[in-house]
DNA-binding protein (MmcQ/YjbR family)
Amino acid sequence: MSFKALADYAMQLPGATQDVKWGADWVASVGGKMFFVGGPHPGAWTHCSFKVEQHRFLELTGMPGFAPAPYAARYHWVAVSDPKALPLAELKALVKRSHALVAAKLTKKARAGLSIDA
């Protein structure tokens, strides 16, 4: 598994868009709000980050390969430095949940425009 596989999966989620921010980070967003970050871009990725629930934040940051995400930990973002920290299916589920958490904060109209159920 690679971080790129997670990025490819993130782009399959409803309303996902991509761009590069801060000159070196590949970002997946929904409704203009980030839900997945990886980098450095271009080049071989060394990490990725995504949003989790508060209780998962505490759990995951206590595991090898996970850490609080720089600059975003207070919003319950985790950074993954080892692509084998969890099985691919579990990492995909976390990325999907990050998408859902961020999409839930969008307006009803924005969610409808992106074909996202509330």
